[in-house]
Amino acid sequence: MNLTNDHWWLATIGRTVVWARLRLLEAGTAEVFDSDGNTLPYDSEDSARAALMDAEFSALDGMDEEDAAARGFELSELVPPSGSDEQLRDHMVQKLPRWH
């Protein structure tokens, strides 16, 4: 598996981060692993990205310090979970400590 085809997206509610992993597949299709532990198939990368944007998610790789600050975070706090899909299920929603 080529992990460079994984792209992390996030939505925020206060100091809670909700993660979604967009995985691009060799066939040109895509799948999103969501915060409920479901894998949702899409016919293309564009349709998967559109669905994430419709759900008010933003791509982590396009975020800078200013974007993170606007959401109430420091960019360094936004670290996606890691592990197998089974391990990720319990870590797709993260409550971060209050800013100091």
What are the defining features of this structure?
3 helices; globular; 30% strand; six-stranded antiparallel sheet; 20% helix; alpha+beta; 100 residues
In words, what does this structure look like?
The chain has 100 residues and is α+β, with helices and mostly antiparallel strands. It has one domain. It is built from 3 helices and 6 strands. Strands 1, 2, 3, 4, 5 and 6 form a 6-stranded antiparallel beta sheet that branches. The protein is globular, with a radius of gyration of 13 Å. The N and C termini lie far apart (40 Å). The mean pLDDT is 92.
The percentage of residues in β strands lies in 25-35%
- Return the structural class: alpha+beta
Mean pLDDT: 92
Query: What is the radius of gyration computed over CA atoms, rounded to a whole number of angstroms?
Result: 13 Å
Number of helices: 3
The first-to-last residue Cα distance is 40 Å
Main pleated sheet: 6 strands, antiparallel
Low-confidence stretches: none
Shape estimate: globular
Number of domains: 1
SSE string, helix = H, strand = E?
A: EEEEHEHHE
- Oligomerization category of the chains in this entry: single chain
Helical coverage, percent range: 10-25%
Count of β-strands: 6
How are the SSEs placed, and which strands pair?
Layout: E1 6-13, E2 16-24, E3 30-33, E4 39-42, H1 45-54, E5 58-59, H2 65-70, H3 85-88, E6 93-95
Antiparallel strand pairs: 1-2, 1-5, 2-3, 2-6, 3-4
